[in-house]
From TrEMBL:
Disulfide bonds join C1-C10, C44-C53. One of its GO terms (cellular component) is membrane. Residues 1-11, 19-54 form the EGF-like domain. Transmembrane segments: none annotated. The lineage of its organism: Eukaryota, Metazoa, Chordata, Craniata, Vertebrata. The keyword Signal does not apply. Keywords: Disulfide bond, EGF-like domain. Pfam families: EGF_laminin. It comes from the Eukaryota. This is EGF-like domain-containing protein. The keyword Disulfide bond applies.
Amino acid sequence: CSSGYTGERCQDECPIGTFGIQCAEICQCMNGGKCYHISGECLCEPGYTGVHCETRLCAEIVYGLKCDKRCPCHLPNTHSCHPMSGECFCKPGWSGLSCNESCSPGFYGESCQQICSCQNGADCDSVTGKCICAPGFKGSDCSMPCPVGTYGINCSSVCNCKN
């Protein structure tokens, strides 16, 4: 097949994310840039430039055609602000239009879309999803009760009972 095509009769364009002869090359476009199936050249989304669409046209805290609008995002919780629309892309553990809302209990991660797997009333780290076990339980998902003779947070206290 010619560069950029595949299929029994070479009738299909390379799958999205690949290009070149036998579609063997991986596209390097960033920030939503579209990859040309023959050469791998990137067509950048508005607001981005560069060979791989890696460069914002506006500084991180502003957006718009003239880069004259301030991003509405709560910056400490924000990964980026779209250079044209001003849409906020939140860091893991944060959500909301301005990235000012922490994840609801039971959720974590990117856009708070991941479901925590913690058991027995354990809390879940809103960024990593790591379980914070309630006293009396241990294990990665807090499913194991403390062994006989131990108690407390992470089962780290030893019982001193007699009889």
